[in-house]
């Protein structure tokens, strides 16, 4: 995204977020990067500065709505905001999801995205449009898990489905106001989140490649970016199965209960 001079990314201390930051880092670019782990975030800051970017790191938990609003409001003009921070957990077959797991996942994956996107929308709708008529672009990292019910990780799938439906639905009116919204639904990406998976991960992709696909989709103003496309198709087809059949297939595929 050559025209991005200023971007803000949550969860930039690892995986997809750090790959996005490094893909955007170049002379003339200003990056606002957040995470909770100061050591890992600092390593990304150093890498982005080495590529010539001006970088402003922030240790902020996306669940802290006030801190998120203040951070985003104070960032100045933002061409791009990516609500990327998220956590994953699955249920071991036959074990119900723990209440605290469900609450934590919704708080980070859903409230955390809301805490990022609402202040970003408020800031972007007030800033002047660029030469392409766009005031700003927002991407939210959902998941392929948004496209079908996931009995092996109900809160994760539900949090991602809510993000996807909210972002795609909101995008219709926001586009008329000059802000594009893109829901990003990746399949398996090689990051800390998938590092412990013991099961086959079809279409597993490096975070750098995923970052390029994500940035291309957001730059094109697409409402939803699903990749790899064939995993998206298979997931949508699986979503048509009765829940018992989906659960049985999931047990075969995800023996430890995790998923993208
Ligand atoms: N990997 C996949 O296969 C895959 C597939 C589809 C979608 N996704 C989604 O992609 C996003 C990034 O995941 P990833 O694979 O890159 O995982 P990751 O390497 O584990 O990175 C997760 C990032 O989220 C941040 N984070 C987590 N909780 C946070 C909180 N409460 N406040 C602020 N930051 C928080 C982490 O920061 P700290 O470590 O500093 O706390 C870290 O930077 C997630 O939303 C995930 O659900 C991943």
Please give a structural write-up:
By secondary structure, the protein is an alpha/beta fold. It has a single domain (6-253), classed as Rossmann fold. It is built from 8 helices and 9 strands. The protein has helices at 15-24, 38-50, 65-73, 99-124, 154-176, 207-219, 229-238, 243-253; strands at residues 6-9, 30-35, 54-59, 80-83, 136-141, 179-186, 189-190, 205-206, 224-227. The strands form 2 sheets. A 7-stranded parallel β-sheet has the order 3-2-1-4-5-6-9, with helices on both faces. The chain has a two-stranded parallel sheet with strand order 7-8. β5 (136-141), α5 and β6 form a beta-alpha-beta unit. It is globular. The two termini are 25 Å apart. The mean pLDDT is 94. NADP nicotinamide-adenine-dinucleotide phosphate (NAP) binds next to α1 and α4.
What does the average pLDDT come to?
94
| CATH class call | Alpha Beta
CATH architecture classification: 3-Layer(aba) Sandwich
- The proportion of residues in beta strands is 15-25%
Shape: globular
Note poorly predicted spans.
none
| Head-to-tail CA distance between termini | 25 Å
Structural class: alpha/beta
Biggest beta-sheet profile: 7 strands, parallel
Count of discrete alpha- or pi-helical segments spanning 4 or more residues: 8
Number of separate structural domains: 1
How many beta-strand runs?
Answer: 9
Radius of gyration: 18 Å
Order of helices and strands: EHEHEHEHEHEEEHEHH
Helix content: 40-55%
User: Strand order of the main beta sheet, please?
Assistant: 3-2-1-4-5-6-9
CATH topology-level name: Rossmann fold
Name the CATH superfamily assignment: NAD(P)-binding Rossmann-like Domain
Bound molecules: NADP nicotinamide-adenine-dinucleotide phosphate
């Amino acid at each position: 995204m050559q025209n991005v001079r200023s971007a803000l990314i949550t969860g930039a201390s690892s995986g997809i977020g750090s790959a996005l930051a490094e893909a955007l880092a170049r002379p003339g670019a200003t990056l606002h990067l957040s995470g909770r782990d100061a050591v890992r975030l600092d390593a990304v800051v150093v890498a982005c500065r080495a590529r010539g970017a001006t970088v402003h790191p922030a240790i902020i938990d996306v669940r802290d709505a006030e801190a998120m609003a203040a951070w985003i409001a104070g960032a100045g003009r933002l061409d791009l905001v990516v609500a990327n921070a998220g956590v994953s957990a699955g249920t071991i077959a036959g074990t119900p999801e723990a209440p605290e797991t469900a609450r934590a996942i919704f708080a980070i994956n859903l409230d955390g995205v809301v805490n990022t996107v609402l202040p970003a929308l408020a800031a972007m709708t007030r800033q002047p449009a660029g030469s392409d008529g766009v005031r700003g672009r927002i991407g939210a990292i959902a998941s392929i898990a948004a496209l079908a019910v996931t009995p092996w990780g109900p809160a994760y799938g539900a949090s991602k489905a809510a993000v996807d439906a909210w972002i795609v639905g909101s995008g219709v009116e926001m586009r008329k106001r000059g802000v594009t919204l893109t829901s990003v639904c990746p399949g398996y990406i090689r990051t800390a989140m998938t590092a412990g998976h013991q099961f086959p991960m079809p279409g597993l992709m490096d975070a750098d490649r995923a970052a390029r696909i994500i940035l291309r989709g957001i730059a094109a103003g697409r409402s939803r970016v699903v990749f790899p496309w064939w995993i998206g198709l298979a997931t949508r087809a699986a979503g048509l199965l009765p829940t018992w059949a989906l659960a049985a297939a999931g047990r075969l595929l995800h023996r430890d209960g995790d998923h993208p």
